[in-house]
Amino acid sequence: MPEASPQAFDPLSERLLAEARERETRVLSRAERITYWSSSAAFVAAALALLLVAPAEGLPETWVVGLLVLSYAVASRLEFEVGSTIAIATQLIVVEMVFVLPPSQLPIWIAVGGLLGQLPEYALRVVPVERMLVVVGSSWFAFGPALVFTVFPADASLTGRTVSILALALAAQFGIDIVSSTLRERAALRVPPRQVLSQFPLAFAIDLTLAPLGLLAALAALHDQWALLLPLPLLFMVGLSTRERQRRLDQALELSGAYRGTAFLLGDVVEAEDAYTGAHSRDVLQLVLAVCDELEVDARSRLDAEFAALLHDVGKLSIPAEILNKPGPLSPEERAIVNTHTIAGQRLLQRVGGRLAEVGRIVRSCHEHWDGNGYPDRLTGPEIPLVARIVGCCDAFSAMTTDRSYRRALSIRAALEELEACAGSQFDPDVVRVLTELIRSGSVGLERQPQLVAIPASA
């Protein structure tokens, strides 16, 4: 089972997981209510239609049905959180059901089992009762094996035909699950299909692993129906695994929150020491995130960019205030001291450790130039991390449009012209293009509006 270490935990999955946990305890939003009422009503209608088209024959004993439904309820509580959705270890029981119960009844009994599994949360009011709709509306996957086994009846055996039909049933289950889940997540939560699809590999891997064991249990039940209980010890072991994974996810979320809190705390310290730098960092943050979104950087890089935008000037805490606030041009010696702030920032963040140590390497490169004339390592072009290139460009625009102790702010027009003049020398041309387009279109706002003072770009 993949570990949720702070270094490997995908920031997108982290965000989706945190949102899903928070959402689980609140009433349905309007979009969720419409989506899950519609999905649940359609599910019930389709399940009843299947029963009419393929009436159940040769029903098993009532206690067998009850045993399978209760087993499914137990298995449904063993949840692996994956982004905004969950993977559950129910495939063992689903395979038993499809061989023991009439296939046309499978969707109904799976929905009932899912509701029973959540009954304690409903009874204790931990989860709003109306979230029963989520369980029913998420049971569409059951139609895959139900339809396949209705069209191609098969008994539990290890023959090639039975294995082939079971494989076809799994493929149908996965296909319906992908389509139905993607549509629901898009309609209810506005989650892009690409993000939904990224959450399926773990869920399907669990199902593929458990399906053969479910077939063996169904095969054993031909000789003694109490063999249907054989999956329960395995489910107990799965439960221990889910609990351990849950603990790791909790730790990862807590540590991520600690990193974010540390970043904001250091930002507040910088602001307390230098009001310009604090406000400037907030402006840079807004610009950087807007550029990252436009460039469609991955979730991990976007989080790095958020931290780097907040902390790119943290090394200035080591620079004497009389130099930082000097009302005039700096001497070469003073400029050399100021230029050490990127290295000082990296060292500070390395002492914090963890994720912020990685961000420290980006902070070090935020004043490198595209043509290699920056500092401290004189990196060129793509050698400079993309996030550092974005922060460096947004940092320069914010600095140019802010009053300083030694000069007035440039107008937005003059600052944009300066960026474009330096594209390909100081700045990454692609980053300049995106940033200037965002600002000219008014797509990004700032904590403080730059003064519109018409000063030539050469000033």
The separation of the N and C termini measures 59 Å
Query: How many helices in DSSP terms?
Result: 21
Biggest pleated sheet:
2 strands, antiparallel
> Strand percentage, roughly?
under 5%
Shape: elongated
Specify the helix fraction band.
55-70%
Average pLDDT, rounded to a whole number, is: 82
Strand order of the largest sheet: 1-2
Rg computed from alpha carbons, rounded to a whole number of angstroms:
29 Å
Count of strand segments = 2
- Topology order in helix (H) and strand (E) letters: HHHEEHHHHHHHHHHHHHHHHHH
Global structural class:
mainly alpha
Unreliable stretches, pLDDT < 50, 5 or more residues? 1-9, 447-459
How many structural domains? 2
Q: Which features would summarize this protein structure in a list?
A:
single chain, 459 residues, mainly alpha, Hypothetical protein af1432, two-stranded antiparallel ribbon, 21 helices, 66% helix, 2% strand, disordered N terminus, disordered C terminus
Describe the protein in words:
With 459 residues, the protein is mainly α. It has two domains: 242 residues, no CATH class; 168 residues, Hypothetical protein af1432, CATH 1.10.3210.10. The chain is 66% helix and 2% strand. The chain is built from 21 helices and two strands. A hairpin with a 2-residue loop joins β1 and β2. The N and C termini lie far apart (59 Å).
